[in-house]
Each structure stands twice: as structure tokens, then as C-alpha cells.
Amino acid sequence: MKEKIIVVGGYGQVGKVISDELGKIYPYKVYAAGRNFQKAEQFSVRTGRKVLPLQLDMNEPIAGDFFRDVSMVVMCLDLKNTDFIQSCVKHQVDYIDITADYSVMSKTQEIRPEESTVVLSVGLAPGITNMLVKQGKNQLDQVDSADIYILLGLGEAHGRAAIEWTVDNLSGDYSVIEKGNRKQVTSFSAGKKMDFSNRLGTKKAYRFNFSDQHVLPQTLGIPSVTTRLCFDSAVMTSLIASLKRIGIVRWLKHPLIREKVVDLFEKSQWGSEVYVAKVDVTGQLNGQSVRYLGSIDGEKEFVVTGKVAAYVAKNVYAGQYPPGVFHIEELFQPTDLFIDLRNIVTLEEKILEV
Asked: In 154-249, at which residue ranges do the beta strands (DSSP E only) sit?
């Protein structure tokens, strides 16, 4: 019987949360996998051996017998292509991915598994943002648009891969769906103010290439979806927007400058560890134009990302879900997820007449 759960990147920041959570439920069946066996071993010891170590280099070919006893893989690393995902599907292994890169995600959507369940958009953004928009859709009769806002604390020690992804997406263009049509936009442009909370106040957030805005028009049929990003430090957000406006951000394409900027973000702590995911969903309810405002906030974004992934993993591992490639909002209900996260997040919701 196939019982193993492999968490690739399982001793990393997010991976530890996932591995530890699953290890408590399925002791001795969860493997924290990565290139550095010593780190995996050290983490295994800290879990009382409920999570086992496994050496796995994603840059090397994966032998077919690797999947022999594997029931599920949870991927915490950014992949360059879908080869590994297709190998999982070929060997009837369920697959869950927490990464946010839409270029690989869009190719994964084209896979047609016959027996495996593949779940994408698992984390904060995408993930919780998708579920907040679905929560709004569930409460309205008609949805016309969804604006998504992400606030990240610069005091949190984000993983290097996450920092690299953010830096790489500060420059460049991408497309969004607006009123049902595709529109080309520029990253860190078109600033828009949003009130995040009494504690954080109103901040200006800017367009950013999170994958949720590409996915939700497909999965929830919303004509216009836009995602914006800001930081808890308004000074830093404004500085990046200014550098973008005068064109200096283009210098980040130079490898040496990029590396220095990533190092700076990785080593510096300029703010708090808070995060907020907030959505503004507009539409109709009982013939009246309304806005659904929903938000989730907490501290340590890597923890909530890991908890969301563990929630999806334990349900897919224990339940009967159809084969195919799905985004989180296609398989799960927001209320169930938010109840599972109630000890680490604060949920606020309201509907306002326009």
C-alpha cells in the first residue's frame, strides 16, 4: 500500500510547518526531502522522528522506483518545468503545490491525470486570497469584479526563494482579465489605497503578478480580477514605486545587482511580521449594488502558508477527491478552511451597499 508523503523542501521555512503538521497526524509516513540530508536529519530529530529525512535533489533525474511507495508529494520549491509533476501523475501520486509562479502553473493546468489529484494555489497568495474571493462570491447574487490586496511585513525572515520571486517580479509586464478582456499592465504601477485595519491604517498597494488574478476568472468566472501588493513600511512601498516609475528597477535584471538586492532583503528587517490578505468583491445582492470586504491577518506568513498546505494535504490524503488538476477554491469551501485556521488568523467580513 502506498502511504508515504514526501514534502519537497520539507526542512525549509514553510516545509517545516507542513512536515511537522502532517507528521503529528501520520507519524513515520512523512518525509522531509531536500538536497541537504544533514538538515533533513536534524529536523527529523526535532520532530521525535515522526518526520523522517530523505535526500532528494530536484536538479537530478528521479528514478521511477522513487514513487513506488509514495501516495502524495507536497512541493515547496519553485520548479522550472512540469516534468516532475508529470512523473507524479504517471505513477498515480497525488500532488500539492504551494508555489506562486503562474508560468509553470499554467502548464500544469494542461496535464490530464487519470488517477491523481493535483491541487494548485495553496498558501496565502494564491490560496487564502482565492478562498476569500470565493467567500464573497458565495454571499452575492452576482460578482462583477474582485480587487485583491496583499500586505507583507518586512520584519519577517522570508525564504530566499520567495524574496527572489518578489524581486524578479518588480519589473516587467503581465496581463490581467478586465471586464472579460485581456489587458497588459505593468508591475508595481496603478497604486490604489486600501484600509487594512485600525492597527495598520490605509496604505497604497500596487499591481503585482500574483497568480490568483490569472486563475480566478477561470475558476470563479469573475470578469475583472486584480491583485496588488504593499509592505507594512509605507516608506519602502513608496520607494519601490518611485524607483519603478523612473526606471531604476530595470537594473534588477543585471545578475550582480539582483543578487545584492536579494541579499539586502534577506538580511534586513525593516518592519513587523504581520501579513494581511484582503479582498474587495463588487456585485449585486437582492438587486442592490454591494461590496463584500473580507480579510485575514496574522503574523508570520510562512506559518499560514504551511498550515493551508497541511490542511489541503491531510484532506486529499484521507479523502476521496476526483482525479484532475484543481485550484484550492475548486475543491474546498472557505468556511471549512477558515475554521481550521481560526487559532492563527483573524477573519473579518462585511457587506456594504454602494
From this structure: 173-178, 181-186, 192-195, 202-207, 224-231
Helix (H, G, I), strand (E, B) or coil at 41: helix
Identify the weakest region by mean pLDDT among 124-138, 191-205, 279-293. Answer: 191-205
| DSSP-assigned letter for residue 226 | E
Sign of the C-alpha dihedral computed for residues 17, 90, 4 and 54 taken in this order: negative
- Sequence spans of domains, the chain: 4-123+303-338, 125-300+344-353
Taking the C-alpha atoms of residue 120 and residue 94, their distance in angstroms, rounded to an integer, is: 11
Stretch 76-83: mean pLDDT? 93
Q: What is the pLDDT of residues 310-345, one digit of tens each?
A: 999 999 999 889 999 999 999 999 999 999 999 999
Please check whether residue 160 is in contact with residue 293, taking contact to mean a CB–CB distance below 8 angstroms: no
Question: Can you tell me the distance from the alpha carbon of 93 to that of 95, in angstroms, rounded to the nearest whole number?
Answer: 6
Distances in Å between the Cα of 184 and the Cα atoms of 2, 165, 210, 245 are: 45, 20, 14, 17
Task: Domain 125-300+344-353: state its class.
Answer: alpha beta
DSSP type of residue 62: P
Cα gap 120→32, rounded to integer Å: 20
Q: What is the DSSP-derived secondary structure letter of residue 109?
A: T
Torsion sign across C-alpha atoms 34, 37, 39, 45: positive
4-123+303-338, what's its fold? Rossmann fold (3.40.50)
pLDDT tens readout for residues 49-58 = 999 999 999 9
The residue-averaged pLDDT of 8-13 equals: 95
- pTM score of the predicted model: 0.94
Looking up cell 518586512 gives: 154
